[in-house]
Design goal:
The complex is a heterodimer of chains A (357) and B (1045). Chain A has 357 residues and is α+β, with helices and mostly antiparallel strands. Chain A has 2 domains: 46 residues; 209 residues, Na, k-atpase alpha subunit (Immunoglobulin-like). Helices cover 33% and strands 18% of the residues of chain A. Chain A has a 5-stranded mixed sheet. In chain A, strands 5-7-11-9 form a 4-stranded antiparallel sheet. Chain A has a 3-stranded antiparallel sheet with strand order 2-3-4. Chain A is elongated, with a radius of gyration of 47 Å. Chain B has 38 helices and 31 strands. In chain B, the strands form 6 sheets. In chain B, strands 13, 14, 17, 18, 19, 20, 21, 22 and 23 form a 9-stranded mixed sheet that branches. In chain B, 53% of the residues are buried. Chain B is elongated, with a radius of gyration of 37 Å. The chains are: A alpha+beta (357), B alpha+beta (1045). At the A-B interface, α1, β1, α2, α3 and α4 of A face β1, α1, α2, α9 and β7 of B. β1 of chain A pairs parallel with β1 of chain B, so a sheet runs across the interface. Chain A: Belongs to the X(+)/potassium ATPases subunit beta family. Chain A: It comes from Gorilla gorilla gorilla. Chain A: It is found in: Membrane; Nucleus inner membrane. Chain A: InterPro entries: Na/K_ATPase_sub_beta, Na/K_ATPase_sub_beta_sf.
């Protein structure tokens, strides 16, 4: 009876039935004669006047109704939830009532932007100060450390993205770009230019120029004509048209680098892998096949403006044709490192010649 | 959720008597309700048995009918073959354990949960990138494959780690689950056999002795002085008698059915109470099994911290994905190749995701769990550690949790005076006047009229801890007298008992007759105790100051006043009287006959009253006060009588001294309850009956309007309704419980706390936490730890998030400005999973900044773990400063090696060309590709060191959120310094130890670069101190709102 009452008042819990246990306190309360209370409870209970059958019917009706409600309730929320979320989102983006964008009013936004402006301005000031201090400690003329760029790397010219020289002697198209590249590269070495800009300094010794860091330094001449057959002056195709290609080798510039103990660095090329006789002869220009000491040391781009990197030209006069020949050119000399495993361009350069006829 | 719950309410174990009386006639109607429910269950659970089994009418059947029904024989028992058949049919007699998530599923969840999915995406992108590279160039470098593998490895390792941590904490619990296999004495093939109780089948005849657990639902066939403790069903531990008589229509109320997992009590009588019964239900089909299965139907709510972490993961993942996609688009529109853009995307994801954070959180939580276990809170579910901290309502049991769970003598009344007895745990300080001769008589009655005895072999156990055979009140009296008088057994020996009428509920008294040790008069002493008014009826005189006075009206009145006063305290009052039987009428040889009652039982001499209560634990009032100041509402939910409940509530402070209930006000003003303005009352005592009649709105109203609430006379099922009501208030609810019936409420609660000593296994299974000492005060320490961990997690996350910006900026700058990449993906992983791990764990050891127990519990939906100020401050303030500092180191390294910053701009493309081996720097020097790469790695290392140095400052500033570091003490948390040391050492090892391992892309860095970022670190510290200063100076200001996280 009580249950039915409850189910009417609390419709959310319709299916209740009840197990009843002996009042656990019965024994407990034996000593405490709580008849008073029992009477009270009885009184409360007897207030229910309805007949049972009526109530049962009512209950059934209610249950059905509730079931319906439940079903309806289940259908809606998914759509609603999305709609609500969307609304919350849009309200978050722009709340027309309180004129708020992203939950902040215009005033609040301007305040926050102002504060951030000052904060970031002062941060910028700090970083500027730091960078300024950094530049104070760094000379613009000479790098602080050069150990990462030492030992010098080696590069060859002509160079077009790859170290495979693949060309057909009879097809100028296949080697023309090498010639153009070399010509372009050697523009700075033109005798006239060199004579005009640079001094002719004594060979065989370092061209040391004392004086302040910031003083302009003179550069030694390296004339194109030093390269003789590979200068492109006599043979404008640099030997490519005859299957005797010229390849220029230059050492990377490093500020302050001096070959050790006055021994100039020499260049020597050979077949890297395979039959050594694939290359029967190479001519080097200058004939010493070395970088003369007078081109060292290098004083840096800012003061040593006209510095011209010395070159060694390799003229592969007799190479096996119609097959790829891997060539390794190494720098040789005291203290020269040419066998770094990870870096295949330190003190050496490897390329392949594949001359087709 | 709401639609699913109704069935939980279905098993309602009412602790009230009224229904019994009114419903007596209409048993049928009740069963209709049952049937309805079963149908409902059947629909949901597809278990047809429910319907059948709950149609329990075995208690109405005669023994013969029972034999027929179950095909058994009461004398012979089942045959073994039949038993085996039934066992095969019904399955073992044990509860199906709650469905465990398979380990592999748990593991896989770790693999894809949180950030893992993002990292997997990164890994797959790596492999895809390699695939694209490979398809165009067969000799593509394997770097992307390695990176993908590393990312995968990171996910797997962190997953394994988190899984291991979880598993470790669950293992603590599994020790609880190992129950000693129970044995049952069963009659089969007309032989008595002991078999494991799992093998019991329906129809078995079992014998249960006092002290044993009832092995299944049994119909009592015969019993001797058997009483059962139904506390696991009802939550109340008052023993209930069991006999073979059919006393009630309702199977749960009739005396001839005992329920599975309840205990058959040891009686003090000999022979020990035994019961013989027929098994009528086994395993999950028992009532307990039914309830347990209902509990498993209650969904486990996500813990608040899980929600918070999810929220945080969403934020970070959202930032990562949106920045990633944004820059992917930017990169593509800047004419980067799609392949490169994908690689940028990976970098951005890796930089944005704090890979180590979730593992750190797990470690932090388990550290706290360990700390809590030391304080007697055993945490089953790691996340529950924090839940306790955010708890805003505790629904506490009374018995055992707030109280000592043993009856104790609290007051005495003799010589017209009320004396207070010491109810503290050790009883040591009994200060009342013991010189009166009335006390001497009273103490004699207490000692002699008592059947309780200490169990043998406990000589060295303190009296209060000794185990006793006997019921709660008798135990209380025994211990009370033992403490005051000394060896009770010796006194009893000297006063040999010659006759005894044990207590029963009809006469409501207990009587015994003893020889006396008085050498002068060899006369018998009759002592009696019982319900005070019954005792008083039998008395004609009263003893005052050792003298017998006739019992007149005025003395009767003083008696009643005292009785009402003690009763009003919620105490159980006993009256004591005695009579010296005249030696001439009752000579030494007189044979007392209990049945014939050949001795006087009236005109006795009333000696005194004694009241008992289950007193509160001494630590509880303090703990409740702490909860109060911590903004936690403590609600008492008990099956006890409202008066008792209220008395205990008052004494522990759940109802504070100056607050009144509506009834109190009515009583004070002498008006009707209805006339009282409900707003005036702060406290409310709601009984289970009232609760039953309430709609959920009414309950909400009560929960919202009253600060101090006591629910009395509630059935454990109503607990669930109360818990749901609290949860509707948006509160995080902690529930304590011990009975099987509490398990639905424990599960429903945000954090269920089971009692370690008194708790049933079902309760422990359903709970998230187990209180090893059953003490409410332990909850409070748990709350404190939980709050601390929330604060510290905030710090940890803020610390970890900060460097994400410093890791992310390089990629953005790299894409937009075209600098050589400042920091590599692998290096980022080394920060996230290497140097930063120990420091972020170290923050878990940080002490609280202020008294965390003095603030309100955090609001579930408002006080987020990661809120806007935290993210903004970490990302846009400190993170940015860190990025700048790290860039400074990076630029320093590059500039000193020859690449001045202006040269670096847009150098990226040339820089990364493998065939350019003579790239010119600012000084005209030419660099080979490998030399540049090596410089790039040096840049990574420099950036790494820059972040590392500033993370040290970050770690220090994160020690506090409001206070200055100097207030907090720079050196108080030693672990922080361990963290910093570890950070530096790992950094040194990476740079100098592993500097030569190319795959890791670390190089040996010049020592001075370690100090480049130090000014920035100091700046960060200073800036944060300023922030905190303003927060402290201007609480509530704009600054406070936007800068306090």
């Amino acid at each position: 009876m009580r249950r039915q009452l409850r189910s009417r008042r609390a419709p959310s819990f319709p299916y209740s039935y009840r197990y009843r246990l002996d009042d656990p306190d019965e024994a407990n309360q034996n000593y405490l004669a709580d008849e008073e209370e029992e009477a009270e409870e009885e009184a409360r209970v007897t207030v229910v006047p309805k007949s049972e059958e009526e109530e049962e019917e009512e209950e059934k009706g209610e249950e059905e109704e509730e079931e319906k409600e439940e079903e309806e309730g289940q259908g809606q929320p998914t759509g609603n939830a999305w709609w609500q979320k969307l609304q919350i989102m849009s309200e978050y983006l722009w709340d027309p009532e309180r004129r708020m964008f992203l939950a902040r009013t215009g005033q609040s936004w301007s305040l926050i932007l102002l504060i951030y402006f000052f904060f970031y301005a002062s941060l910028a000031a700090v970083i500027t100060l730091c960078m300024y201090t950094l530049f104070l400690t760094i000379s613009p003329y000479i790098p602080t450390f050069t150990e990462r760029v030492k030992p010098p790397g080696v590069m060859i010219r002509p160079f077009a993205h790859s170290l495979n020289f693949n060309f057909n002697v009879s097809e100028p198209d296949t080697w023309q770009h090498y010639v153009i590249s070399l010509n372009g590269f050697l523009q700075g070495y033109n005798d006239s230019l060199q004579e005009e800009m640079n001094v002719d300094c004594p060979p065989g010794q370092y061209f040391i120029q004392d004086g302040n860091e910031d003083e302009d330094k003179k550069a030694c001449q390296f004339k194109r004509s030093f390269l003789k057959n590979c200068s492109g002056l006599e043979d404008p195709t640099f030997g490519y048209s005859t299957g005797q290609p010229c390849i220029l080798l230059k050492m990377n510039r490093i500020v302050g680098f001096r070959p050790e103990l006055g021994d100039p660095v020499k260049v020597s090329c050979k077949v890297q892998r395979g039959d050594e006789n694939d290359i029967r002869s190479i001519s080097y220009y200058p004939e010493s096949a070395s970088f003369d000491l007078r081109y060292y040391p290098y004083y840096g781009k800012l003061t040593h403006v006209n510095y011209t990197s010395p070159l060694v030209a390799m003229h592969f006069t007799d190479v096996v044709k119609n097959q790829a020949v891997p060539v390794q050119c190494q720098l040789k000399g005291k203290g020269v490192i040419n066998d770094v495993i990870n870096d295949r361009f330190v003190g050496r350069v490897i390329f392949t010649l594949n001359i087709e006829t | 959720m709401h639609q699913k719950t109704p069935e939980i309410y279905s098993v309602e174990l009412s602790g009230t008597k009224d229904i019994v009386k009114t419903d007596k006639g209409d048993g049928k109607e009740k069963y209709r309700g049952l049937k309805n429910n079963c149908l409902e269950l059947k629909k949901k659970n597809h278990k047809e048995e429910f319907q059948k089994e709950l149609h329990l009418d075995d208690h109405k059947l005669s023994n013969r009918e029972l034999e027929e029904k179950y095909g058994t024989d009461i004398i012979m028992g089942l045959s073994s073959t039949r038993a085996a058949e039934l066992l095969a049919r019904d399955g073992p007699n044990s509860l199906t354990p709650p469905k465990q998530t398979p380990e592999i599923v748990k593991f896989l969840k770790q693999m894809v949960g949180g950030f893992s999915i993002l990292l997997w995406v990164g890994a797959f992108l790596c492999w895809i990138a390699y695939g694209i590279q490979y398809s165009s160039d067969k000799s593509a470098s394997l770097n992307n494959v390695y990176l993908g593998c590393v990312l995968g490895l990171v996910v797997i390792l962190t997953g394994i780690f988190a899984y291991y941590q979880e598993a470790k904490s669950t293992n603590i619990m599994s020790s609880f689950n190992k129950m000693i296999p129970q044995q049952a004495l069963v009659i089969r093939d007309s032989e008595k056999k002991t078999i494991p109780s799992e093998q019991l089948v329906v129809g078995d005849i079992v014998e249960v002795k006092g002290g044993d657990q009832i092995p299944a639902d049994i119909r009592v066939l015969s019993s001797q002085g058997c009483r059962v403790d139904n506390s696991s069903l009802t939550g109340e531990s008052e023993p209930q008698p069991r006999s073979s008589e059919f006393t009630h229509e309702n199977p749960l109320e009739t005396k001839n059915i005992c329920f599975y997992s309840t205990t058959c009590l040891e009686a003090s009588t000999s022979p020990v109470g035994t019961v013989t019964g027929m098994v009528i239900n086994t395993g999950d089909r028992t009532i307990i099994g039914h309830i347990a299965s209902l509990a498993s139907g209650v969904g486990n709510e996500k813990t608040p911290i899980a929600i918070e972490i999810e929220h945080f993961v969403h934020i970070v993942a959202g930032v990562a994905v949106s920045i990633g996609i944004l820059f992917f688009i930017i990169a593509v529109s800047l004419k980067y190749q799609v392949l490169d853009s994908i690689i940028f995307l990976i970098g951005i994801i890796v930089a944005n995701v704090p890979e180590g954070l979730l593992a750190t959180v797990t470690v932090t939580l388990s550290l706290t769990a360990k700390r809590m276990a030391k304080k007697n809170c055993l945490v089953k579910n790691l996340e529950a550690v924090e839940t306790l901290g955010s708890t805003s309502i505790i629904c506490s049991d009374k018995t055992g949790t707030l109280t000592q769970n043993r009856m104790t003598v609290a007051h005495l009344w003799f010589d017209n005076q009320i004396f207070v007895a010491d109810t503290s745990e050790d009883h040591s300080n009994q200060v009342f006047d013991q010189s009166s001769r009335t006390w001497a008589s009273l103490s004699k009655i207490i000692t002699l009229c008592n059947r309780a005895e200490f169990k043998p072999g406990q000589e060295n156990v303190p009296i209060m801890k000794k185990a006793v055979i006997g019921d709660a009140s008798e135990t209380a009296l025994l211990k009370f007298s033992e403490v005051i008088l000394g060896d009770v057994m010796e006194i009893r020996k000297r006063n040999r008992k010659v006759a005894e009428i044990p207590f029963n509920s009809t006469n409501k008294f207990q009587l015994s007759i003893h020889e006396t040790d008085d050498p002068h008069g060899k006369r018998f002493l009759m002592v009696m105790k019982g319900a005070p008014e019954r005792i008083l009826e039998k008395c004609s005189t009263i003893m005052i100051n050792g003298e017998e006075h006739p019992l007149d009206k005025s003395t009767a009145k003083t008696f009643h006043t005292a009785y009402m006063e003690l009763g009003g305290l919620g105490e159980r009052v006993l009256g004591f009287c005695h009579l010296y039987l005249p030696a001439d009428e009752f000579p030494e040889t007189y044979s007392f006959d209990i049945d014939a009652m050949n001795f006087p039982t009236s005109n006795l001499c009333f000696v005194g009253l004694l009241s008992m209560i289950d007193p509160p634990r001494s630590t509880v009032p303090d703990a409740v006060t702490k909860c109060r100041s911590a903004g936690i509402k403590v609600i008492m939910v008990t099956g006890d009588h409202p008066i008792t409940a209220k008395a205990i509530a008052k004494s522990v402070g759940i109802i504070s001294a100056n607050s009144e209930t509506v009834e109190d006000i009515a009583h004070r003003l002498n008006i009707a309850v209805e006339q009282v303005n409900k707003r005036d009352a702060k406290a409310a005592v709601v009984t289970g009956m009232e609760l039953k009649d309430m709609s959920s709105e009414q309950l909400d109203e009560i929960l919202a309007n009253y600060q101090e609430i006591v629910f009395a006379r509630t059935s454990p099922q109503q607990k669930l309704i109360i818990v749901e009501g609290c949860q509707r208030q948006d509160a995080v609810v902690a529930v304590t419980g011990d009975g099987v019936n509490d398990s639905p409420a424990l599960k429903k609660a945000d954090i269920g706390i089971a009692m370690g000593i008194a708790g049933s296994d079902a309760a422990k299974n359903a709970a998230d936490m187990v209180l090893l000492d059953d003490n409410f005060a332990s909850i409070v320490t748990g709350v404190e730890e939980g709050r601390l961990i929330f604060d510290n997690l905030k710090k940890t996350i803020a610390y970890t998030l900060t460097k994400n910006i410093a890791e992310l900026c390089p990629f953005l700058i790299y894409i937009i400005v075209g600098l050589p990449l400042p920091i590599g993906t692998i290096t980022i992983l080394f920060i996230d999973l290497g140097t930063d791990i120990i420091p972020s764990i170290a923050l878990a050891y940080e002490k609280a900044e202020s008294d965390i127990m003095n603030r309100k519990p955090r609001h579930k939906n408002k006080d987020r773990l990661v809120n806007q100020p935290l993210a903004v401050y970490s990302y846009l303030h400190i993170g940015l400063m860190q990025a700048l500092g790290a860039f400074l180191v990076y630029f320093t390294v590059y500039a000193q090696e020859g690449f001045l910053p202006r040269t670096l701009i847009n150098l990226r493309v040339e820089w990364e060309k493998d065939y350019v081996n003579d790239l010119e720097d600012s000084y005209g020097q030419e660099w080979t590709r490998y030399q540049r790469e090596y410089l790039e790695w040096t840049g990574y290392t420099a950036f790494f060191v820059g972040i590392l140095v500033q993370q040290i400052a970050d770690l220090i500033i994160r020690k506090t959120r409001r206070n200055s570091i100097f207030q907090q003490g720079l050196f108080r948390n030693k672990v922080i310094w361990v963290g910093i040391t570890s950070q530096i050492i790992i950094g040194l090892i990476l740079s100098y130890g592993l500097g030569s391992v190319t795959a890791l892309s670390f190089t040996m860095l010049r020592a001075q670069y370690w100090f480049v970022a130090v000014p920035h670190a100091i700046l960060i510290w200073a800036y944060d101190e300023v922030r905190k200063l303003f927060i402290r100076l201007y609480p509530g200001s704009w600054w406070d709102k936007n800068m306090y996280y």
